[in-house]
Amino acid sequence: MIEILVVSFVLLQIFSPVATSGSHVEYLPGFEGPLPFHLETGYVGVGDSAAEGGAGEVFYYFIESENNPKEDPLMLWLTGGPGCSSFSGLIFEIGPIAFKVEKYNGSLPNLVLRPQAWTKACSIIFVDLPLGSGFSYPDTPYLQRGDRGLIKHAYQFLRKWLIDHPRFLKNQVYIGGDSYSGIPIPPIVQEISNGNEEGIQPWINLQGYVLGNPVTTMEEENYLPSFAHGMALISNELYMSLQNNCKGNYINIDPENGSCLRDLNTLHELMSGLDNFCTLEPKCAMASPRPHGFGSRRSLINKFQRHLSSRLSRPPLSCKSYAYFLGYDWIEDDRVLEALHIRKGSIKNWQRCNPFNYDFDIINAFPYHVNLSRKGYRSLIYNGDHDAVVPFMSTQAWIRDLNYSIVEDWRPWLVNSQVAGYTRRYSNKMTFATIKGAGHVAPEYKSEECFEMFTSWISNKPL
């Protein structure tokens, strides 16, 4: 058996050239002393210039598990947008380092350790996809990006990366991400599963996927009125009027339906002073350009556009988005680019979220959840319960439509003997959890609670 595996691996190297380039990063500017974890950055070549999605170089940050990398799972992590760099996931969400949030004085921002890093329980590859996100770059500046190209490139990336890192070939593999990643990740998981079934090498030890506040059906905004009503943001009378006049459809509205339009305008006016990504937070300027929309019938992205405004002025230090400005101050420094081994001339203007043209060619990820449930893959689906962009009700609705029986009914889950949220488990190996008080990118708001949730789930322990 060992001889067969060795032969297969050698043949794979001969017939599938691997365009990879990885370098160990021992020091990072702004962090005192050597890094107490293993960080590797690099590029993997993907795609075909003549095929869908084109070709280019995918940049990644790889952090080896700080626990037991030989046995711990390996997770590929995508940041949403589409077009947002995985730097966000690494620095602002679940990675082992974060910015020390202090008033910017013109010097390089300082980095500190994040005690609640998910790399305490698994190895994580943070990838900049689609091409053009972060430090990834296409072979041609005129590339048209889209969901299907992203899916192909993610699958190719993972296969090539594993070939170049054979010590992880036997590790359990998960695919994770949040926000818009809820659309491409289920198809990516299915692509990997199909490849395994077809005997494509290397065989990937795929176990499941993790999604936070995931865009899934492109109809998430239909749940905004019920969210607003439940959170006491609108009156009973307005909520009842919305139900009567709009008939449950708040996206594709008949322009002749003046009563529905007036009610929706009132709702948006009442919420205009809130941060829709977390209604508990102050409304602050963001440090990202505006991503493109989903199209005329999908107004969900309009919230992303309003939220991710251009970084014209630095917000108060009390704003969560202040750290995003520090991110630009840090990553645009030549010393940082050199430490990360960024190819000179590959990127002219790094942006946390790149507003390129994008084909939203998968408008509903629900059918992929159906297929993956039938195949028995594990999944963790979680929602910050104060997110008005992808309300927890919208996630509960499509999970309910999967029509799997409940094996553990709705109950609180605890951190430090306090309620951190609520959870439920289903017979398709799906766990759903809310994070109390968290917003759209839940780990940014409740890092300790999300850490406990993830490390319990990835270890096959109950929340």
UniProtKB/TrEMBL annotation:
Family matches, as InterPro entries: AB_hydrolase_fold (IPR029058), Peptidase_S10 (IPR001563)
Signal peptide: 1-20
UniProt keyword Glycoprotein present: yes
Gene Ontology molecular function: serine-type carboxypeptidase activity; sinapoyltransferase activity
GO biological process, one term: proteolysis
Keywords: Glycoprotein, Signal
Lineage top rank: taxon: Eukaryota
Family designation: Belongs to the peptidase S10 family.
Name of the protein in question: Uncharacterized protein
Species this protein is from: Acacia crassicarpa (northern wattle)
